[in-house]
Amino acid sequence: PYPAYRRLRETEPVHESPFGFWVMSGYEDIAALLRAGMSVDDHKLASGPVRDQREQLDAATRGGVLGLSMLERDPPDHTRLRSLVGKVFTPRKVAALEPEITALVDARLDEIAEAGRVDLMAALAFPLPFAVISKLLGIPEAGHERVRDLSGLLVRTLEPVADQELLDAVAKAGIEMAEIIREIIAWKRAHPAEDLLSALIAAEQDGDRLSDDELIAQVTLLYVAGHETTMNLIANGVTALLRNPGQLALLRERPELAANAVEEFLRYDSPVQQTRRITLEPYTVAGRTIPARTFVIAALAAANRDPRFWGDDAEDLRIDRELARNHISFGAGAHHCLGPALARLEGRVAIERLVRRFPRLGFAGEVEMNGRMNLRGPQHLPVSV
Ligand code: HEM
């Protein structure tokens, strides 16, 4: 997509698409848009395909149970839901996970060493974040393999145009996922433990005003966001390193660059390529006026390579880039991602240890992409060690 992003940025950084939505691609414009406090609730759209899609999904999934997540709610609901989740999903809980994450990574690397040649998606990039978010939430991994397929479909709702067949599949996945999460919550109520889900249930019982459907939606959001994104961070990061051998050599030489390398991977190939906002009033930017109640895509991945912000080497991978951390991959404003500490920790430990352990790490075949517009990354990443 990067040549297309470049074309957009250069020719029409605020673009009105023929599909009834707008696309922004410049860094400063996007940063301002996300901080402008606009809506994220598709129900506020005047009309158009995104609104139709939302209504179809609502109708198919009992009033859109999963659409009750904070990601799609405006104040005061957003404020209430985010503060409730923020109370239990704390940086301390994340930092405490480092030994466990390290052990999980090393166990995976042992298996990779044994096999010699693997699909890194199946061997590390998916199972690590899935194990970590399952552990954090207190959901057993066994018995929930189905969640993987369902998550892959659910994230398609973050794309603006879906064909009818896909939309039907997404709606079915939404219903099945909501049922799985409902059962998990019922089980957890009977078996509380030291985990995030138990803490959320307890907070709710303390009178924090969360409906059953809202609880289902927040747990689903954490569960899905917890692995579908970090998986792409790890896989896109490894792919970028293998395509840039000089940078891989630099990381081997200076392992202390690992944390900054993760920021650069987030910038260079954003695991979440876009987020969105809905204007409530006409919004004027770069000489264009976007009408009220219109869907605007903020192309984060395009902003992350905007030369006006990053300079002439914006399209290059440079793991020692100063200010790489200024990327906009976690969004900005009221909906800024809740999981950066966890994503950074997993990404750093996984990539640092993978690179250190396997001096002969290389591609073992073509990288096959997952075909998604937003949560973009490899479907298969064959490597040999
Ligand atoms: C929201 C990216 C990992 C939980 C978001 C947004 C983006 C994003 C772009 C929307 C921001 C906006 O519209 O302003 C990412 C990336 C990740 C990642 C690139 C990994 C590399 C995680 C993890 C979790 C998480 C590990 C939790 C376990 C959330 C939640 C929201 C969110 C709960 C909604 C926040 C709100 O609406 O207030 N993330 N995320 N994310 N993310 Fe992440």
TrEMBL record:
Q: Which PROSITE patterns match?
A: CYTOCHROME_P450
Pfam families according to UniProt = p450
Which range is the signal sequence, renumbered to this chain? none
UniProt-listed CDD domains: CYP164-like
> InterPro entries from the entry?
Cyt_P450, Cyt_P450_B, Cyt_P450_CS, Cyt_P450_sf
State whether keyword Heme applies: yes
Record key words, sorted:
Heme, Iron, Metal-binding, Monooxygenase, Oxidoreductase
Give the similarity note. Answer: Belongs to the cytochrome P450 family.
Q: What is this protein called?
A: Cytochrome P450
Recorded source organism is: Nonomuraea typhae
